[in-house]
Structure formats: C-alpha cells, structure tokens
C-alpha cells in the first residue's frame, strides 16, 4: 500500500475517513463527526468529496496534542451503513496484525 | 563484556531525563509533533501502524544476561511480552506507549542499555561480528574498535545532522558475518605484509531503493588513524551529500556520482589536514578501552568429551549440533547459535519468557554472555563442549533449538505491513509459510546453505537484495505482489541478486520458492555446490524458465 505519509494532494475516489494515532499511547484512532476521536472505525466521520476530505483533515491535524500523523484513508460503506477498511493497510490497522502474537505467560 | 565507566553512565542517565522532559512537553502540547519528531527519532522512537515502536541498541551485538533479563522486563512491563531482534543488532518493541517510554528507558539505563541514535540522520548503532572475540580465525576482537567508534560518534555534533542515516560495521575474520559490504562504512581488520594490524576501509555500501556494494577506499589504515580517517569521510559526506532529495542522500549515492577515485581523493585531501591532530589514537586510549572488556577464564577442556560422544548417537542432537555449533578459539569450547526461526514463527522474535530463560542458560553455560547476529538469531559465545547436550535439551524446551541455522528456513525478514508504516506488503506471513514448506529437516539439509531474505518494501530492512533468494513486497493496484531475486549474498563476496521475472501474487510466493529450490536440486553440479554457486555458474535463466514456464 502506498504510504499515506507520502500523501500530498488530497483527491479521493470514494468514501473516506481520517485516521491517526493517539499521541500518548500510539493507538489507532478515527476522526468522528463530533470533532473528536474514537478507537472504533464504526464511529468515523465519512467524507465523499475532496473538499470534505480536505476540511476533515484540516480540523484533525489541528489537534496536534491529541493525535499524530493524521491522514485520509479509503473505506467501504456497506448497504446497512457498516464501515469497513478500504485497503489491506487499514484493515491491519483496524483489525490488528495478520499473524498470531505470543500468548502472555 | 564491556563495562561502562562513570561518564557513560552519566551520559545515559542524563539522556533519559532529557527525553522524559521532552515527552512531558510533547504530551502537554508545549512541543508540536514536528518539533518532537526529530527528538523521538534520535531516541529510537518511531510511529508505526498500530503504536509507537521503540528500537533499542545492542552495540556490536553483545549482551549480558542481566541486560537480556532487563529487555525481557521491558517486553513484559511496557509492551506485549515479546521483542523483535533486527538485522542491525537492535531489538524493537512494537506496542510501547509514549507516556511510558521514559520509564522504560530509565529501566534500561540501569543496566547500561540505551536507544540513542538507533534512528535519525546520524551515525547509528555500530555493528560487528556476533562471534567477535571467540572466532578462531579473527585477527583481533573487533569490538574494541566498535566501542571506540561508538564512544566517538555518540552525540558527536558534526555527525548528528547528516544528510541521511549512517551505518558502520566491523569484522575481523576472513568470513564476513557482519555484512560490512552493505554498510556506509565497512571496516575489515587484517594484517598487512609487514604483519601490522589495521583496517581495510570500504565505503558506499547500502541496500534500499538503490543497492550498492561498498568499495575499498583504503586497503590498509593503521588503527591510530581510524578516527581521523572516519571523520574525513564524514566531513566529505557532510559537505557534498545531498539534502534536497531523501532518495539520493545516502553516502552510497555520493560515492557513485563522484566515482570512488574522486571520492577517495576528497577524503585524502581532508584527512591530510587532520591526520596528525588530536584525533590520532595513542596506544593508551585503545588499551583503556580494551581493558574494559572482560573475557572469561577458560578451563582446559577436551575437544571431544564423553558427554558429546554419547549424545552423538541421538540424531536430533546431531542435526542441531551440525548447524548450530561452531568452532571456538579456546579448545573444548564452542559457539552456539540459538535459532529464532521456529517453524511457523515470526523471524527474530523472542518472548520475554524465552529471553529470561536464555539469560539463565547464559549464566549456567556461557559466562553470562549472549550475542545478537544480523541474521536475527542469538548466540551463546562460550559454551563448554561437554555441556552441549544439556544445553541443547534446555534450548529445545524453550523453542530456540530448531536445527535450521543457515538453512532455507533460517529466514531474515523485516516486520512488513503487519507493523511498519512504510511497508507495501507483508513479510512475516510469507516467512511463516516458507518455514512450514521446508519444515522437514532432511529436505532442508539436502538443500544445504540457503539464505532467504524478505523485505516488505524497497527500504530493504530484510536485506532482500543480498539474500540467496530475495523477496521484495510491492503493491500493484492495491494487492500485494512480490519480486523475486536470486544469487545475492551479504558476505565477503557480497553481490546484489538478479530479478528473475515479473512479480508474483502473495499466494504464489511459497510455490515460486519451492520451484526455485527444486530447479537448484536438479541443476547443481554436486551435492555440496551451494545454491548461490549454482546461480553464479548458470545464471538466472534456468530458474526463470522453471518459475515462469507454467505461470
């Protein structure tokens, strides 16, 4: 997946959200419509135009204390409204690594 | 082991407190992320997909049992109970919280471990042969010089804001286990015709987007001139290295663009101005560092003790001994490699429990010392040969005695897209599948020495360019694809591998590797012709035909 860290021009091709990592612990977070953050993708604000995406990213980046490295990422919105990650990278960020982690002793 | 003096301890402790203050100011909003990023990177803290990643230095790959226990403690207390040993003698923790990092660093500092300059555009952890000090064929212990460079380059203002990261590696043996030819500066200790010990200096090696094998810039450099010469190289790099384009900023590009002769002349001109300066090392300085390394007092022991003779009847023990036990400079002793490549496991990972158990075994069998190699395995450097059977049983119990060292399932792999924010594709699941395909030890043994290296992106942390079989993850239309190269090697005959054809999808990588291995078995001139030698003799064409004939 092309690293979103390289993201320069904002042009979206479908439904998208803004994601980042929480500053104090690095946990994956999603920008909500209430101008806050959530650890759940289902709470993410969905944007459908490049202008909306630009605006959502701008307000997200403005929260430099709460979040690190905000960027726009694609999502799939199912008929019932369920939000799914739009690519493998976001799937891994949302669902966790695709390998088994060691069991704590 | 090297014992830190008061200056080292003070430096590390002050660094922890400095970083604690920086983290506090970041969390309060006093520092922006832009301001903080360079500070965290200089302390080994990256931001990855799921969390912060914390990279801790293990200078020249030497650890005490006490230090390994402390790494286990950090894994358990601040992370998720495991760590990942890298290709540059570091350990990475994948789930660390920024708010807890200063405490983790403080705990590590108590045992002389730090994370300074494990990231950022500065001189990185100085790496060396994991068998340093015990390899029978080495000229002298390369860690003396590694430590000297570590002290000299740590927080050196002129080397702290280089055009790009800068990596040293040092070896002192004929067989290069430190991969010096793929480092920015590679140093090979050897003796000249007069019998004096000094360095062959190589420069401009590196992998990543544009791989280059390092070139010799000085065939023999006296030890007393090491610092002045290295500084001259870095000054030329600092002056001419590109800062406008991150992809062209490494010294390898400068050496390539100037040409080695012109680059060497620039370094020589710079060096002549400073070679007899305060940087000239006198014997006392070198001896002081040498004196701070402690070495075990070995017993006089038989080379073939009764315990070993008896154990030789056990085929499982013998399978392990043949590829995990290496000759030692002291009679009656051996170097034992601990495989961190179990069948189905992520390469280079060790759990906190394993680390604690290995530390205990190091105390019992290896004078409390552990080594970390760039192949992402560990080693116990001072094991009495009579103890090998007992040690093997104990290692097997904790899952680090897979008899696959240097075989096809001893895979080097980066964390890939499962963890890394730069990755295009996953590395670990590919490695896991390959270890399952080649789990049969007899088959792996029949294949012989074969290094598979996997990188999840062009940055090449898995050193895929120099794998006998190299696998590079790329993205095509949102899907994971993998380019396969063959014929690379990272040793004294280092060479970049050759691409065999179009990239293959994720689900076909293991099949392709099996095809390549089957082709090799059919094509090799004799059973002891290594895979890389067959590729060198025949080229890639027969392998390409085999792989793509049905694809």
Count of strand segments of chain B: 21
Structural class of the helix and strand makeup of chain A? alpha+beta
Distance between the termini of chain A: 34 Å
Number of helices of chain B: 18
In quaternary terms, these chains amount to: heterodimer
Mean pLDDT of chain B, to the nearest integer, reads 97
Read across the widest sheet of chain A, the strand sequence of neighbours is: 3-2-1-4-5
Total separate domains of chain A:
1
CATH architecture of the largest domain in chain B: 2-Layer Sandwich
Radius of gyration of chain A: 14 Å
Q: Could you name the ranges of chain B where pLDDT drops below 50 across 5 or more consecutive residues? A: none
What count of structural domains of chain B?
4
Portion in beta strands of chain A = 25-35%
Radius of gyration of chain B: 23 Å
What layout of secondary structure does this protein have?
The complex is a heterodimer of chains A (105) and B (551).
Chain A: E1 16-22, E2 28-31, E3 37-38, H1 50-62, E4 67-77, E5 83-85, H2 88-95
Antiparallel strand pairs in A: 1-2, 1-4, 2-3, 4-5
Chain B: H1 6-28, H2 33-41, E1 45-47, E2 52-57, E3 62-64, H3 65-78, E4 82-85, E5 90-96, H4 101-109, E6 127-128, H5 143-153, E7 168-171, E8 185-191, E9 197-203, E10 215-222, H6 226-240, H7 251-258, H8 260-272, H9 283-291, H10 306-311, H11 315-324, E11 325-327, E12 333-338, E13 349-351, H12 352-365, E14 369-372, E15 378-384, H13 388-397, E16 412-413, H14 428-437, H15 441-447, E17 452-455, E18 469-476, E19 479-486, E20 498-499, E21 504-505, H16 509-523, H17 531-538, H18 541-548
Parallel strand pairs in B: 6-7, 7-8, 16-17, 17-18
Antiparallel strand pairs in B: 1-2, 2-5, 3-14, 4-5, 4-13, 8-9, 9-10, 11-12, 12-15, 14-15, 18-19, 19-20, 19-21
Helix pairs in contact in B: 1-2, 1-4, 3-4, 3-12, 6-8, 7-8, 14-16, 16-18
């Amino acid at each position: 997946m092309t690293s979103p860290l390289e993201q320069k021009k904002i042009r979206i091709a479908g439904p998208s959200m803004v994601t980042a990592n929480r500053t104090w612990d690095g946990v994956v977070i999603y920008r909500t419509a209430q101008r806050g953050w959530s650890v759940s993708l289902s709470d993410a604000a969905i944007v459908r135009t490049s202008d909306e995406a630009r605006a959502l990213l701008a307000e997200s980046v403005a929260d430099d204390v709460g979040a690190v490295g905000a960027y726009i990422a694609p999502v799939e919105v199912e008929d019932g409204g369920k939000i799914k990650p739009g690519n493998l990278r976001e799937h891994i960020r949302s669902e966790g690594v695709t390998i088994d982690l060691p069991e704590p002793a | 082991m090297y014992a830190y003096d008061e200056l080292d301890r003070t430096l590390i402790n002050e660094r922890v407190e400095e970083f604690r203050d920086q983290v506090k100011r970041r969390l309060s909003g006093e520092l922006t992320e832009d301001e903080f990023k360079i500070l965290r990177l200089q302390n080994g803290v990256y931001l990855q997909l799921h969390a912060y990643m914390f990279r801790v230095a293990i200078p020249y790959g030497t650890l005490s049992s006490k230090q390994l226990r402390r790494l286990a403690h950090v894994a358990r207390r601040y992370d998720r109970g495991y760590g990942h040993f890298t290709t540059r003698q570091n350990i990475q923790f994948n789930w660390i919280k920024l708010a807890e990092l200063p405490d983790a660093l403080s705990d590590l500092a108590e045992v002389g471990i730090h994370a300074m300059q494990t990231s950022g555009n500065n001189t990185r952890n100085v790496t060396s042969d994991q068998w340093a000090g015990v390899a029978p064929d080495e000229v002298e212990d390369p860690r003396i010089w590694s430590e000297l460079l570590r002290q000299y380059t740590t927080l050196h203002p002129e080397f702290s804001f280089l055009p790009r990261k800068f990596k040293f590696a040092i070896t002192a043996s004929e067989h290069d286990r430190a991969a010096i030819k793929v480092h920015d500066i590679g140093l090979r200790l050897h003796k000249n015709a007069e019998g004096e010990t000094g360095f062959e200096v190589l420069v401009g090696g590196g992998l990543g987007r544009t791989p280059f094998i390092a070139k010799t810039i000085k065939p023999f450099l006296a030890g007393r001139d090491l610092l002045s010469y290295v500084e001259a190289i870095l000054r030329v790099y600092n002056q001419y290295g590109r800062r406008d384009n991150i992809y062209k900023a490494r010294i390898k590009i400068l050496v390539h663009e100037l040409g080695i002769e012109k680059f060497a002349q620039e370094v020589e001109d710079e060096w002549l101005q400073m070679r007899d300066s305060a940087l000239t090392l006198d014997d006392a300085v070198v001896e002081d560092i040498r004196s701070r390394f402690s070495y075990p007092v070995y017993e006089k022991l038989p080379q073939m003790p009764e315990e070993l003779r008896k154990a030789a009847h056990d085929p499982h023990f013998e399978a392990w001994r043949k590829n995990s036990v290496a000759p030692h400079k002291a009679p009656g002793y051996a170097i034992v490699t601990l495989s961190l490549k179990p069948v189905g496991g992520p390469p280079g990972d060790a759990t906190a429990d394993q680390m604690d158990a290995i530390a205990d075994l190091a105390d019992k069998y290896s004078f409390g010392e552990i080594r970390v190699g760039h192949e992402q395995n560990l080693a116990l450097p001072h094991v009495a040969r009579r103890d090998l059977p007992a040690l093997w049983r104990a290692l097997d119990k904790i899952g680090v005695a897979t008899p696959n060292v240097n075989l096809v399932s001893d895979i080097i792999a980066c964390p890939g897209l499962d963890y890394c924010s730069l990755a295009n594709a996953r590395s670990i699941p590919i490695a896991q599948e390959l270890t399952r395909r080649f789990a049969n030890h007899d088959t792996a043994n029949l294949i012989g020495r074969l290094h598979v290296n996997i990188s999840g992106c062009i940055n090449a942390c898995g050193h895929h360019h120099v794998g006998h079989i190299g696998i590079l993850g790329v993205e095509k239309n949102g899907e994971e694809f993998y380019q396969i190269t063959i014929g690379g090697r990272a040793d004294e005959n280092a060479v970049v591998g050759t691409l065999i054809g179009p990239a293959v999808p994720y689900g076909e990588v293991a099949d392709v590797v099996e095809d390549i291995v089957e082709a090799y078995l059919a094509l090799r001139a004799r059973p002891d012709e290594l895979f890389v030698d067959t590729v060198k003799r025949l080229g890639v064409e027969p392998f390409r035909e085999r792989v793509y004939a049905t694809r």
